[in-house]
Amino acid sequence: MKKAIFAVIAMLAIGPMAKAQLYVGGSIGVNTQAGKETEENETEKLPQTTNLNISPEVGFFLSDQFAVGAYINTAFSFGNTRATDPIKTRSTQFGITPYARYYAIQSDKFGVFLEGQVFFSHQSSKTIGGGVTVDGPKTNSFGVAIVPGLAYSLTDNIQLQMRLNVLGAHFTHTSTTSGDGKETTANNSCGLNISTQNVLGSLGGIQVGFIYKF
Q1: φ and ψ at 3, to 5 degrees?
Q2: Check: CATH 3.40.630.30 for 2-30+48-213?
Q3: Tens-digit pLDDT profile for residues 100-130
Q4: Whole-angstrom Cα distance, residue 37 to residue 7?
Q5: Longest CA–CA separation in the chain, Å
Q6: Cβ atoms within 10 A of the Cβ of 203, count?
């Protein structure tokens, strides 16, 4: 994670030295899933899950077609079986993604870009039930990715962005340590993403956000 922080600092230092245009932005998402089931006049509550994702972003336009920046991925998940003796789960993820972006197609309002990313993330979880808390596995991931995206300028300063992670290419190294710290497994994966799941584990296959240019 220290390397990620140094990479972000180095990348963002380029902007002021190059007298580039600063922008800030990000995205946020929240969803909750719950329900109930009725059978023979008896109603049973189904498990409830709530997910919250926050990704602030900062960067610099070095030219009309080239930008560098970074965004922070924070994700929180809360689960509850909602039974008589409920079991609760908690999951937290934190990541940093420096990137370089090239606008291959650009008009007055619409743009198409390719984004090269270096990503780092850490995820942990725990389960709470019967007054006992059990730590879940801890996962560290890092890798590189190329992600296409679309941009639409609402005004001269505000631009909507859509990263199409479902169409990206990636290499990812993942290391998982069990909750008791006694076992560690590692895994490497690479390839093209043609799916509805975001390999970066941030906001899903399509990530929508905005930036404000100063």
Answers
A1: -60, -40
A2: no
A3: 999 998 888 899 999 999 989 999 988 888 8
A4: 50
A5: 71
A6: 21
